Amino acid sequence: AQALFVVPVALIIAYGLLVETLTFVPASIIFCTVMMYLFERKDLIKKAIISCVFIGVLYLIFSTVFQIVLP
Asked: How far apart, in Å, are the Cα atoms of 58 and each of 3, 25, 51, 63, 70?
């Protein structure tokens, strides 16, 4: 039961470190894919595709609509 708390927290910390080196898009795709796979361990390719689409849309919204430069 404690792993359900510790692992996501560790992944969030790792994500924060990865954003600085990999930049927003690749770090976010990896993070989203791993988190989704952590909670349901099947269809990894489907989860990776969903992550790519979600992060792509999020990036477009922030860069065009809000005109915010993401790291």
From this structure: 29, 9, 10, 9, 10
Six token digits for residue 23: 């930049």
Alpha helices, H only, 1-71: 3-22, 24-39, 44-60
pTM above 0.70, yes or no: yes
Q: Give the tokens for residue 9.
A: 């927290």
From first to last of its 71 residues, what are the pLDDT tens digits of the chain?
Answer: 677 789 899 999 999 999 999 999 999 999 999 999 998 999 999 999 999 999 999 999 999 999 998 88
Residues 32 and 54: beta-carbon distance below 8 Å: yes
43: helix, strand or coil: coil
